[in-house]
């Protein structure tokens, strides 16, 4: 039976969990995730876990933060004055906001703290710094 390798397009069903068992994402109720191995379309540890699997095979992969969304980078956390937030935008903790830079590019931040004077914005991926566990089933190889 063929094993998944570099350049193969694969379809997988997966469930992603934190170390405490909290599920943060799954494909079980929908279509399988499709990606091409080697094209960096998914996190590195997930891609590596699929290499060598055969159709119908299932595995559980423990992926350290460095092979997932990276370590939490404090340089991506900043405080802005409340008056820099448009008055028509009501911010709450854990809100995800799209920010436009002066060069026109956009990025997403998470509101992590709010005070009377400041709002703390974190541009790290919400799962940065977290070790992840994925239950993976290889559904198909093209």
Structural class computed from helices and strand pairing: mainly beta
Order of helices and strands: EEEHEEEEEE
| Percent helix | under 10%
Low-confidence stretches: none
Question: C-alpha Rg, in Å?
Answer: 19 Å
Mean pLDDT metric: 96
- DSSP, total strands: 9
CATH architecture heading of the largest domain: Roll
Classified by CATH, the class of the largest domain is Alpha Beta
CATH topology of the largest domain: Chitinase A, domain 3
**General shape:** elongated
Give a structural overview:
With 142 residues, the protein is mostly beta strands. It folds into two domains: 9-70 and 127-141, Chitinase A, domain 3 (Roll), CATH 3.10.50.40; 74-122, Thrombin, subunit H, CATH 2.40.10.330. It has one helix at 44-50, and strands spanning 9-18, 23-26, 33-36, 58-63, 77-81, 96-100, 106-114, 118-122, 132-141. The protein is elongated. The mean pLDDT is 96.
Write the layout of secondary structure elements.
Blueprint: E1 9-18, E2 23-26, E3 33-36, H1 44-50, E4 58-63, E5 77-81, E6 96-100, E7 106-114, E8 118-122, E9 132-141
Antiparallel strand pairs: 1-2, 1-3, 1-9, 4-9, 5-8, 6-7, 7-8
């Amino acid at each position: 039976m063929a094993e998944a390798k570099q350049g193969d397009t694969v379809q997988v069903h997966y469930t992603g969990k934190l170390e405490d068992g909290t599920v943060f994402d799954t494909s079980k109720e929908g279509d399988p995730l499709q990606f091409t191995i080697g094209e960096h379309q998914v996190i590195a540890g997930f891609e590596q876990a699929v290499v060598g699997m055969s159709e119908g095979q299932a595995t559980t992969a423990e992926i350290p933060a460095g092979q997932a969304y990276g370590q939490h980078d404090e340089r991506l956390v900043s405080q802005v004055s409340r008056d820099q937030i448009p008055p028509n935008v009501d911010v709450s903790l854990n809100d995800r906001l799209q920010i436009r830079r002066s060069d026109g590019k956009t990025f997403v931040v998470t509101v992590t703290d709010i005070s009377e004077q400041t709002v703390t914005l974190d541009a790290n991926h919400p799962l940065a710094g977290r070790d992840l566990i994925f239950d993976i089933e290889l559904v198909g190889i093209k």
